[in-house]
Write a structure and sequence with these properties.
Blueprint (H helix, E strand, L loop, with lengths): L4 E4 L15 E8 L2 E8 L16 E6 L10 H10 L6 E4 L28 H15 L5 E7 L1 H12 L4 E8 L10 H13 L4 H7 L4 H11 L8 H7 L5 H17 L5 H6 L4 E5 L8 H10 L4 E4 L13 H11 L1 H6 L1
Parallel strand pairs: 4-5, 4-6, 6-7, 7-8, 8-9
Antiparallel strand pairs: 1-2, 2-3, 3-5
Helix pairs in contact: 1-11, 2-3, 4-8
Amino acid sequence: MTADMLGAGEAESTRPGSEEQVPLYEEFIYCCGAATQVLKCGPWKDLLETESKTLPRLLFLIIPGNPGLAGYYRTFIRALYHGLNRQYPVWVVSHAGHCKPPNGMGMTEDTDIKELEDVFGLHGQIEHKLDFLRKNVPKDMKLVLIGHSIGCYITLEMMKRASELQVLRSVLLFPTIERMAQSPQGKLLTPVLCKLRYILYMPVYLLSFLPERVKTSMVQFVLRGLKYPDEASILTSLNLFSVDCVANVLYMASQEMMKVVERDSTTIKQNIKKLIFYYGVADNWCPQQYFEEIKMDFPDGDIRLCEKGIRHAFVLDASREVAAMITDWLQDILTRL
């Protein structure tokens, strides 16, 4: 498997004390042979090359939902890094193929090396994250994993498959870890995702030829219901005019409907002291019933119900609020470092 960096963008300008101007680096790499976008907050661009005396004690890694576009979490990781007093790197790694690669880079790597089979599927996305850690993070690096939506399922699977990971905490935001097809949203979308998704490719292909300003206006129209839409989300959504990107997003989603069925209570029980769950009150992907049942099964677990009306796709308009909550939740482990 390869994870060689093809190119990296310039760091955004910095101004001390400003959350919007914290050091942020963008990289496009091949991981498991698939195009992958990585956003890194903090001055540590390469943890494997950093001298031990300046190596951070902890890495925060965000595992996204679906669409797994790293750009949706740009505001979130900046706010989290700022809330952590800029002491620890905060990274987000996209799902394999959930990005529009820069010019000169294909969606898959042109190589004779046999890569992971079905890297764009749900199983492949889990191995993709583990491979990213193996290739980019020191083995003894302590981790805080933050999963969002299907990223929570992936996070639990990572902890199950790689027990050697030095995970201090895993924060599971709006966790789709069971019965996805039976959820209100799943009942609506499963037939489309599993049987009819191919008919969506042609409209996306035709829309891809529109001028950027027209695409931007279309995204703004779709997000018009948000009071304060995140500007990063608007720009990131333009990736969804790429047929390859949309095909990978929908393929992964179809597998989620079929494979995310039973909650993995064994893995949860084994790691319960490391886990923080955060459910939404009106979340159509993981309804309140799922919260009540897991709370009953694990009465001593840190399982919370949102009382602030934050939507499942919190990155669209509540990134700073969620980042502030996480910083507060993790004070116990941060003070012990």
